[in-house]
User: What shape does this take?
Amino acid sequence: MENKIIEKDFGDLALNMGPQHPSTHGVFRLKLHLEGERINHVESYLGYLHRGVEKLSENLDYDMIPPVLERDDYLSPTSNSLGFINTIEEMCNIEVPERASYLRVLIAEMQRISSHLVALGTYGLDLGGALGGGASLFLYCFREREKILDVLETITGTRFHTNMNQVGGVRYDVNEESLKKTHELIEYLKPKLTEYFDVISNDEIFMQRTKNIGVISKDLVLSSGGSGPVARGSGINYDIRKNNSYEVYDNFSFEIPMGSNGDSYDRTIVRMKETLESIKIIEQVLSSLPEGALCSRKPLKSAKLLKPPKGSHYKAIESPRGELGFFIVSDGSSMPYRMKIRAPSFSNLSIVEKLLPGTYIADAVVILGSLDPVFGDVDR
Amino acid sequence: MGDVKKTLKDIGSFMKLPGANLFITKTADLFNWANKSSLWPLSFGLACCAIEMMATFSSRYDLDRLGMITRASPRQADLMIVAGTVTVKMGERIKTLYDQMTGPKWVIAAGSCAISGDHYRHVYSVVPGVDWIIPVDVYVPGCPPTPEAFIDGIMELQNIISNGKSNPTFNSVDSERPNIDEIKVKKKEILFNENFIDGLSLINKCKEIKSEGYDYINFITATDFEDSLVLTYLFTKNNNNEKVEINVKLDSSKKIDSITQIYPGAEWQEREVFDMFGIEFKNHPKLERILMPDDWVGYPLLKDYKMEQAKLPYRPSREDYESWKTKL
Assistant: This one.
């Protein structure tokens, strides 16, 4: 018998991924055009979680908006309301008491750690068997995250949609008990996070899966508007906490971890180092927490009374995902005329279409996970 | 085996015979017992509630002890936990996923968004409750529900299954969403103080500022004013954090040159503006809707677009639902 090898060009194989795929970190659909195992080109579809927050905000009073915004980037809800409230405070020239500002930083940094822990844990799942069955990293990260949520619950009464910030200050104060718990949390987290950092940054399998995978050049980051760990992983020193400081970040000493190659490994390492820096910030907040009022405004009789002056204003803060900005156009009434949310995940995710072609399909998940998109933030 | 024996005692009786043990029960009870003890949920999440669902599945709360293992394929799953806001675009997918699941199947609507739409209820793109699309067995309230609430909901579902009295709720009101009167939004005159540049000179201006070092694009957006749409571009000089804002007044043709040639990252931003305002960008590589479904009518962020002006997904009629129930 003669052995015949039949070769035929079947063209592209279009493979659908999502929107309910667990590795897309939410509702995101990728149409991968494959040639063998290589990705030829990618079409991405989003908007599966578009909840019309910008339109909704045009129908809400300024004081009613922060709780809605907290549902946007649901891994770090405080940054959303913090960004919005910072914008309003700059528009109306509202002073914030120092203690309130310290407490805002405390909650925001705690959520930064918890957000990065979720990113790392789900990244472990994405990498599959690479890290001890994948699920173990996920379980460890969620174990530590629960501890953070416990402290947040003690301080604010909710697990992660804290609703801590309000225009002019904060809603909840810390007391001896919650401060003690925070201290204990920091003492608990420090060795754990260092341990995970040591284990992962030197793990041979992890390095092989992520090093030189999904390399983002500086130019691509800049022209796409990438920010946060995505930009810093590529060696761009862009952290709004330092560059254009808000709240009381000036008072604290911390470093901005940077990568150099811009690959998935660097982005993950930047995130992990950032959690350690956040712990430094929390320690400084706890050691120098000033006494004073919680809010500079008197309780309003009606939400309609807060009316920023006419004009537009843009202000951005550093959320765990990057530059989270609010562009607000006010017509002098109690509701915004137009509010644009500059979502960091949206800009970061737009890189994916340019990054995936030419890579293997197994790496698509690695690259997507390393960008750490949150779809409430992408779709708004 | 001790635990299994204990739970089996609820549905039948053991008999000791010489040389063997005999267990007598009804098949229906036995199957219900098996079903409730091995609920396999479909692992997909929509929004914030999905994070709490993940927390429920992981270390501290550990749903595995209730016999729950997530399945990534709907063919292997018999429980769908709808955790998060259901949008019109996702609603069709949820219906498909639900149809792909093999019966008997159950649905838990977790969180106020999945139950009623919550504060997004009146927004154009949101389905006011997942029970508009698929029948729901258990509602778990909360925004988001705590893991304890999740576990409570799942145990409630187990009770329902073991009683054999599944009676899912389905929002069968046939009329479409009523159009309530909305606050009349009056268009305002232009509120910016900044200088405007001409739409035709936009490309040159962008080239100019890029050569000055403004290589970082923050965002592109538009605002709907009384006499014209105003486009706003924001760029940052990265090394010293300086920002430059460019405003362009559009004429009634709503067309402008795309800047994707100069800033490739503007692609998605421009698509979003097109999606929300209907502004056409000339020479854009792929000018399609990005957030809304392709067949959507209207541009949501225009001022004369009502927030509630929604196109809702296909809803099964009451008859479809009744026939579905008898088939089960």
Summary: The longest strand of chain A covers residues 311-319. The mean pLDDT of chain A is 85. Chain A has one domain: 51-379.
